[in-house]
Structures are given as structure tokens and as C-alpha cells.
Amino acid sequence: MGLTSSFWKVFLAYASIAMGTALLFLILVVPWQSQQQTEFAKARLREAVLLLKDELLPSASTTQEADLQRKVRGLAEATGLVIAAAGPKGQPTADSEQPPGPLAVSTTNPFAQVEMSAARSQGEGFMQRTNPTTGNPWLYYALRIDRDDETVGYLRAGLSVKSIADQAAGLRRATAWFAGLATLAVFVLTLCFFRSPTQGPVHQLNEAVRSITQGHYAQDVLVHDRGPLGKLAANLNRMSRELAARFAAQRQASDRVDAAINGMSEGVISVDAGQRLLLANRSAGQMLGFDPEKSAGAELLSLVRSRPLHAAVATSLESETACITEAELGGPQSRTLRITAQRLAGDPCPGVVVVMHDVTDIRRLENLRHEFVANVSHELKTPLSAIRASAETLRMGAINQPDRAVRFLTLIEDEADRLHELILDMLSLARIESGEETFDIRSLPVAEKIEERLRTHEEAARAKQMSLLTHPPDQGFSVLADGEGFRQILDNLLDNAIKYSRPGGEVHVTWQKQGALGAIVVTDNGIGIDREHLPRVFERFFRADRARSRELGSTGLGLAIVKHLAQSFKGSVVVDSTLGKGSTFTVFLPLAGDEFPVS
């Protein structure tokens, strides 16, 4: 019996669908998949170069060539990339493909490579070519590094894209197999449909083919037939398993890249030309306050309210030069981010990648340093100005007037003593903060040490007609501390209590156990401290009343020394004060056990 026109109509209809699907897959999906993989590789190269830029360029100017070469080779082995650094004129300074040691002198034009030439003229450049050593395709990216409108060097990285080409070729072969087998399957199924009452296996095969065309590649058709229909089902099952395995491998590779990006401490985001979010790692979500998994495709403006960030992205979309800026993010914990925005290659521009570094601690330390320098300059300037003014007065003739000469010489001596005390306190505080001060931690009997220091301050208290009173506990105890450091703590607290108390006042010293700690309490009924100043009393050079403190000869470092010494002994210090009624300072130190030697 011949094949009817109905057979050919059905066959051609389904065969056209199968062939058309395969053709569309070859024309659209395979190139798109390859392009996506290539763009992903470009983005990875660009991000790697941006991250390695600050690591390698400073080393290029301060490190020997052999050390730089070893560093570049180490980074290349760690990242799986080929990395090369060059000077401002393109002269090579390091190359991970070269052996350790000095680089061989090259006579070729450093800008003969397409990516280097593009980087010199446009700021960056990509080039895909065959590696002469391995014979495999490689993707190269070169970046020109500018500082203050001057080129300081070039950084180039390469990544093997052989896997992308192999995957694309495998997809084309699998698609071709699919097209051929699908056409054959359609023919056989149509023939069976028209010549055999068995339509169950045909329906299964038809559904399997439809599922594969929809992207569900893992199909398993059970056809209990040893004839052509069974062979077709077996081949279709084998093809579906191969397609599923290839796409699973691609997903695994993509997952590994995602894991690497999400493991970075720097925040990384990528947006398209319309500033819609394409990619964001976990660090970026934590810095900017959004969920990366739920924010893909959202507009950046709706996710982050940061004018510097949006300005950097907008600037990078219009310029090929990387935009570097800083942004202050508010909230419960204010943070400072250093933002580097780089335009992605392409015409029109496909988007921008942004790398963010949290520099909050760095800026805080810089502010502390500036504040410390300003305070030290001010504190040194005051006594020096008094000394200079007195010396000039003496030189202008006061030295010949005994009464005036003695007064000015006494002033010079007092200011010199104050300057000496300030320098000693600064050196002591610097040693404690840096950890250079070595402490002999031992058991110190509190009552004995307090009585010893009170005897030292009796004369100063008697001069102001003040009383120094002690309130010992029923049972004595010892604390763990360094003897000299404990003396400094007591002297500073007692000295402040006497200085800032009115004549005829009282200073009370109490000590008692509180759990595993010993508490030493110094209370006065002096001028007190305003509550708004209490959080800052332990800061260096802080004085609630600067004029009165200078009149009394205070350096402004005593309480800062008390705080850092107490912390060095694994203790703490707190203050409570009422303006006009007096202050109470309490130092907590660990209690001593029997295993520590007694001072």
C-alpha cells in the first residue's frame, strides 16, 4: 500500500516543526549561549583586573622585578588567569607566562597586540585569539591605568575560552543529531500511525520530543519494541541524556562563578544601560540593604538611595574611563564606601559593573589621626607661647628688674614643667595603646597601695584644706595589675579629685569586691561634670572646662591613661557625676588568686 497524501501532510507538518525548532535552536540559542558565556568571561576578566589593579600597580613601583614576577605568577595560579603588567610605555614588568626571575627583553612592539592597542587609545580592549603555546582559543583583556590624567601602566589578563567553544560545538552536534533523529522519529511515528493501530509508543515519543523542544532535556521513553520504533526511542533517550548532561555542566560552571563572586568581601553589582540590576553578590546586598536574589531586574534607584552611587553609574555609562568616588551610607551604622564604576564594553553600552570597598574603619582612623595631631599641636602651642612671651619680656629689659625677672622665670619654669608632663603622658599613652608597654601582672594588696598613694597626695590636699578619707571593707583583697600601672591609675584619679574640688572639700576612697572583680571608687564633692560631657571624659585632650583645666595644670590625658591601663589589666573604668555636686570614678580590676605572686 502506497503512502497517501495525508501521510505526507502529517509527516511534513511535524518534520517541519522538528527541523524548524532545531534550526531556531542553532540560529538563536547556541549563538546566544556562546555570547552569554563570552560576555560572562569578559565580565570576569574585567572584574579580576579591577580587583588586581590596586594589588599590582603599587608593587610595580616599589618591588624588585623578580619579586613582582613571583607575585604575578602566584596570583595567576590562584585565579586560573594569565596576568601581565606593563609600564606606561607598554614595557613589560611582569608576565605569569614567563619563568621566575628577570623578564626576557622583548624586541616586539608592546602595542602590536590588539587589546593593548585598544587600551592605549580607548582605555580598555578585548581580543579573542588562539594561544600559540596551547593552540586553544583565549580571551584577553587589557586596561590602561590612569592617575591624575597620566598613564601609569597597563594590566592585561587572559582566560581560556576553549570550554565555551567546545560546549557550543557539542550543542551544535547534539542539535544536529536531534534534528535528524526527530525527523526520523516523525517519519516512523507517522508511518506507524497510518499503518499500525499501535499509537501508545508514538504518543510517548511525540510527547518526549515536545518536552525536549521546551527545554526539558532529561526524557526517558519506554517503548517495548525491538523494531525501528524501539531503536528510535533508545536514540532519543540517549540524545536527551547527553543534552541534559551538557546543560547541567554549564549550570555547575555558572554556579561556581556565582559562589566565587558571592564569597568576595567587596560588594559587586552590575546594571544594564537602563540602570536595572543584572547581578549583585551578597556583600553588595549587605552594604546597600537589599536582597540580591529578589532584586534582579529592579531599578537601582528603587533599591539604593545614594546620590554618589547613581552619579558614578550615570557617569560610567557616558564615559569609558572608570569613575572612582566615595559614598556615605546612613542608617543605624553609618558606613563609607569606596566605589569604582566601570563601563562594560559594547556599542551600545550594555551596562556598568560597580565594585565597592568598605573603608569606614580607614576613614575613622584617619579622622582620629587628624584630631590627635590638631590637639597635640594646640596643647604644645599654649605653653610654648607663654615661654616665648616671657623670654621676650625678659630680653626687652625685665631681666634687669629682679621682681619682674623672678616672676617671668617662674612662669617659664611652670610652663616647662607642664610641657614636660604633657610629653611624658603622651609617651606613656602611646606605649599603652600600641601594646609596646610590658606589664608585670601580679597580685597587689589594694588597701596597702591606696594608703601609700594617699600619703603622697596629703601635702596637695592639705594646701587646699581638704580631707582624704578611706572606707575599707571588712576583709581586704588583692587585684591583678601591674604595680606601676596601678600607681598611675590611683595618682591620676586622686590628682583630679583634689584639683577639681573646692577648698575645704573631701575625697572619699572606697574599695570592695563585686563578683570576680575588685572595685576601687574615688568620690569628690567638687565642681562635677555636665552629663552631656560624660561620654567623652576618657578621650585624649578632652576637658569639660578648658580654661579651668589649663589653670590647674591638667594635660587632658590622665583619664585616657586610666582607661587604657584598666583595659590592659582586663578591667574597666566608669564615671558618674552631677554638675556642682562632685564626681565618682570606679575602676574594676580582676581579683587575684593564690597562683599569682604578691607584690
Biggest sheet character:
5 strands, antiparallel
Helix content: 40-55%
Number of continuous helical runs: 15
SSE class: alpha+beta
Average predicted local confidence, pLDDT = 78
Overall strand count: 17
Radius of gyration, in Å, reads: 39 Å
Q: Determine the N-to-C terminus distance.
A: 117 Å
CATH superfamily of the largest domain: Histidine kinase-like ATPase, C-terminal domain
* CATH level 3 topology of the largest domain: Heat Shock Protein 90
**Order of strands in the sheet with most strands:** 2-1-5-4-3
Outline? elongated
Low-pLDDT parts are 547-553, 595-599
Question: What's the CATH class of the largest domain, please?
Answer: Alpha Beta
CATH architectural group of the largest domain:
2-Layer Sandwich
Strand percent estimate: 15-25%
Protein name: histidine kinase
Main location: membrane
Domain Histidine kinase: 375-593
GO biological process, one term: cellular response to phosphate starvation
Task: Describe the overall structure.
One of its GO terms (biological process) is cellular response to phosphate starvation. 52% of the residues lie in helices and 20% in strands. The strands form four sheets. It has a five-stranded antiparallel sheet, with helices on both faces. It has a five-stranded antiparallel sheet with strand order 7-6-10-9-8, with helices on both faces. Strands 12-14-15-17-16 form a five-stranded mixed sheet, with helices on one face. It has 15 helices and 17 strands. The chain folds into five domains: 5-24 and 165-259, no CATH class; 44-101 and 109-161, PAS domain (Beta-Lactamase, 2-Layer Sandwich), CATH 3.30.450.20; 264-358, 2-Layer Sandwich (Beta-Lactamase), CATH 3.30.450; 363-434, Helix Hairpins, CATH 1.10.287.130; 441-590, 2-Layer Sandwich (Heat Shock Protein 90). By secondary structure, it is an alpha+beta fold.
